[in-house]
Amino acid sequence: MAALFMSVISFSVNAQVKKTATPKTAVPASKKKATAPAKTIAPKPVAETMDITTAATTRVKITTDSGIIIVKLYDSTPLHRDNFIKLVNQGFYDSLLFHRVIQGFMIQGGDPLSKNAEPGVMLGNGGGDMERIPAEFRTTLFHKKGVLAAARDNNPEKASSACQFYIAQGKKYTDEDLNMMEAQMGRKLSLQQRKAYKTVGGIPFLDMNYTVFGEVESGMEVIDKIASVPTAPGDRPIGDVRMKMEVVK
Questions:
Q1: Coil, helix or strand at residue 206
Q2: Which domains does the chain have, with CATH numbers?
Q3: Tell me, what DSSP letter sits at residue 56?
Q4: What's the pTM value of the predicted model, to 2 decimals?
Q5: 138 and 147 in contact (C-beta within 8 Å)?
Q6: Smallest Cα–Cα separation from 54: which of 142, 183, 182?
Q7: Directed axis angle between helix 175-185 and helix 191-199, to 10°?
Q8: 95 and 89 in contact (C-beta within 8 Å)?
Q9: In which region does residue 82 sit, left (phi positive, over 0), alpha (psi from -120 to 50) or beta (all else)?
Q10: Count of alpha carbons within 13 Å of 159, Cβ hemisphere only?
Q11: Burial grade of 20 (CB within 10 A; 0-12, 13-18, 19 or more)
Q12: Cα angle, residue 26 at apex, residues 62 and 144 outer, rounded to 5°
């Protein structure tokens, strides 16, 4: 099969939210030699009594061409937290690009093929041979602006890419917008979600579809700056936006 484009959902932003986004999680970027399906890491049991919060003991410093971002990694999503820490400590992300940027939606990076990519090359296929991370959905962790979440292909388990991630930018919504979205999604948003989506904004239609495993503590303006850069068809920035990461306490 063609290599899979590790992507979050394609979308249409409009004030009335008349249509929800449709999945675009398995878009063939190019015809390549067939490869074996990616494996999924076996999930570890999580105690039922675990307090699902945004508590965090680990932070990561992301240095970009546009400034510095500090993210905290949630302890309530240990598989994603530990995998991200491992890759950061290995220097995996150093010199990789934010290869997919959509203003009013998100900025995405972590494709290992982006390190030495020529200008104009479509990216998003890298990391498909790495073991997927099982989904760690938590109803209290949702796509408000600034959250760190895992990209994925269209596997039925909604398991995450082992390396590709995105940081949500999104937009602010009105109560009317959110009411329409609830009707389209067939589920209710919590009071906490509604407050966040009205005040700071975010991407409600991605909730419980992509694992949220951290959030920005400082550098939110850097997210907005990166999201606003000019892009080519395929949403790759015309000028490369590189990253370097380190674990900080």
A1: helix
A2: 56-248 (2.40.100.10)
A3: E
A4: 0.82
A5: no
A6: 142
A7: 130
A8: no
A9: alpha
A10: 18
A11: middle
A12: 45
The three state secondary structure string of 68-118 is EEEEEEECCCHHHHHHHHHHHHCCCCCCCEEEEEECCCEEEECCHHHCCCC
Q: Compute how many other C-beta atoms are within 10 angstroms of the C-beta atom of residue 214.
A: 26
Find how far residue 118's CA is from the centre of its chain. Answer: 24
Q: Which two tokens stand for residue 47?
A: 């105690």
By CB atoms closer than 10 A (0-12, 13-18, 19+), residue 103 is middle
Six token digits for residue 40: 């999924």
| Phi, psi of 209, rounded to the nearest 5 degrees | -120, -30
The string of pLDDT tens digits covering residues 198-219 is: 999 999 999 999 999 999 999 9
Please calculate the CA angle 54-60-66 and round it to the nearest 5 degrees: 115
Cβ 160 vs Cβ 41: under 8 Å: no
Q: Which helix (H) or strand (E) segment is 149 a member of?
A: strand 147-150
Write out pLDDT tens, residues 21-73: 333 333 333 334 444 455 555 555 444 344 457 898 999 999 999 999 999 99
